[in-house]
Amino acid sequence: QKEVEQNSGPLSVPEGAIASLNCTYSDRGSQSFFWYRQYSGKSPELIMSIYSNGDKEDGRFTAQLNKASQYVSLLIRDSQPSDSATYLCAVSPSSNYKLTFGKGTLLTVNP
Amino acid sequence: DTGVSQNPRHKITKRGQNVTFRCDPISEHNRLYWYRQTLGQGPEFLTYFQNEAQLEKSRLLSDRFSAERPKGSFSTLEIQRTEQGDSAMYLCASSTTGGLRDTQYFGPGTRLTVL
Lengths: 111, 115
Description:
The complex is a heterodimer. Chain A is mainly beta. Helix content of chain A is 0%, strand content 54%.
């Protein structure tokens, strides 16, 4: 059973702080890694994709991948109340293939 | 609007009835995926298509579930003899094998409630 593990939270941070979200995966052959944001009652929205070890930055978001440790994280800088949502980590063994999702981490940013 | 669309957005049905959902992918996306999401869980893969060919079905997908993509454009997901355990959000996503690698874009989902 290929698994993706995330802390369910809730993770609560004050506005302007850095939120750190973590994800581990069991399939060592995984090649594609994604972070999706999901507001309550809505569908997942892609935040970041990462394919190589290291960091990838996009605005206030930074994804970090460590394949040796089977670990991927998402940092959100200058957190805003509008960032309050569930963040889903998704992993795929290859390009253009099904995603395996974690259960998600609920993030609350307090004004 | 050029995103993934799904219809209906909500469906309430009685146990034992059949339901059908439709997904229209982003234009020219040749891959189409169906996922199911229950409360507090991440989406779970059900099946996917490349063009009109159904390439994989999850073992979670019982014989009561069937999906089609007859012309390689829109797709339908049918559930026969619905059960209360089928209550969930059914999500469709599409991607292209070219361009932005393998990003899957999700539709708004169809929320199914089986009474």
